[in-house]
């Protein structure tokens, strides 16, 4: 009964070669998030979708893009990965618009570790 | 922007000991969340707190939402080796919003 699924768990790409990371969820949550986490650091929010509305963090590089074709799926596209983009990428979901007090609880997937050669 | 100060940064304890860690903020949050992250995995939600003063338990874990709404603590009783990991606090404001994370507390438990 997996809730937030990320594939693949490990991804190796070459410097400058576009790569796409995938996330799917069975929770029917309307908000999906992408975080970047580097070693020994807290997750850093890149962007999120509230339903179909895309919300980019101010300091997220243009190199990072996202797509959400439907409620269940969300993709992270890195157009030209650099060595500094090697990190764990975490997808998370939450339900907004429901009972107050449960709007902010986010559930994370297992992450995709990206290696850039 | 909002910042969370999480302490301690790391702890090394003996199995069976109790553990306490906390987060403080310069601004008010309406929700506090505590996550645990194992190496190579995503954070797993441990406890969610929604009301000032709320005290919530989950097995050997207990967390409290400070009455000032600017702090929260997490206690782990009778620690076991599988408690090893990084514990993150996270805060959020009312309504739909994003989370602010603490920098994490790394817990090591010696058998």
Question: Could you explain the architecture of this structure?
Answer:
The complex is a heterodimer of chains A (117) and B (111). With 117 residues, chain A is mainly beta. Chain A has no helices and eleven strands. In chain A, strand 4 and strand 5 form a beta hairpin. Chain B is mostly beta strands and 111 residues long. Chain B is globular, with a radius of gyration of 13 Å.
Q: Note the run of SSEs of chain B as H and E.
A: EEEEEEEEEEE
Helix/strand/pairing category of chain A: mainly beta
Mean pLDDT of chain A: 91
Oligomer: heterodimer
The major beta sheet of chain B can be summarized as: 6 strands, mixed
Number of strands of chain A: 11
The major beta sheet of chain A can be summarized as:
7 strands, mixed
Q: Count of helices of chain A? A: 0
What is the molecular shape of chain B? globular
Radius of gyration of chain B, in Å, reads 13 Å
Q: What is the terminal-to-terminal distance of chain A?
A: 34 Å
Q: Show unreliable segments of chain B.
A: none
Key terms:
heterodimer, A: 117 residues, mainly beta, 7-stranded mixed β-sheet, 4-stranded antiparallel β-sheet, 11 strands, B: 111 residues, 6-stranded mixed β-sheet, 5-stranded antiparallel β-sheet, 54% strand, globular
What's this entry about, in short?
Chain A has 117 residues and is mainly β.
Blueprint (SSEs and pairs):
The complex is a heterodimer of chains A (117) and B (111).
Chain A: E1 4-7, E2 10-13, E3 19-25, E4 31-37, E5 44-50, E6 53-56, E7 64-67, E8 73-78, E9 87-94, E10 107-108, E11 112-116
Parallel strand pairs in A: 2-11
Antiparallel strand pairs in A: 1-3, 3-8, 4-5, 4-9, 5-6, 7-8, 9-10, 9-11
Chain B: E1 4-7, E2 10-14, E3 19-25, E4 31-37, E5 44-49, E6 55-58, E7 61-65, E8 71-76, E9 85-92, E10 100-101, E11 105-110
């Amino acid at each position: 009964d997996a809730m937030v699924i990320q594939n693949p768990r490990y991804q190796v790409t070459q410097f400058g070669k576009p790569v796409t990371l995938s996330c799917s969820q069975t929770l029917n949550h309307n908000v999906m998030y992408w975080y970047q986490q580097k070693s020994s650091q807290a997750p850093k929010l890149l962007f999120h979708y509230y339903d179909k509305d895309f919300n980019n963090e101010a300091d997220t590089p243009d190199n990072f893009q996202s797509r959400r074709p439907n409620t269940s799926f969300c993709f992270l596209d890195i157009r030209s990965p650099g060595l500094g983009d090697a990190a764990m990428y975490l997808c998370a979901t939450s339900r907004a618009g429901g009972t107050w007090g449960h709007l902010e609880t986010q559930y994370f997937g297992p992450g995709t570790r990206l290696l850039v050669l | 922007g909002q910042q969370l100060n999480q302490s301690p940064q790391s702890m090394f304890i003996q199995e069976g000991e109790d553990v306490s860690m906390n987060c403080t903020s310069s601004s008010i949050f309406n929700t506090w969340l505590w996550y645990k992250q194992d190496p190579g995995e995503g954070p797993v939600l441990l406890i969610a707190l929604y009301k000032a003063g709320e005290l919530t338990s989950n097995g050997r874990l207990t967390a409290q939402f400070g009455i000032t709404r600017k702090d929260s603590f997490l206690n782990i009783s009778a620690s076991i080796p599988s408690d090893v990991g990084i514990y993150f606090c996270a805060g959020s404001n009312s309504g739909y919003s994003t989370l602010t994370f603490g920098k994490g507390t790394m817990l090591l438990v010696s058998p």
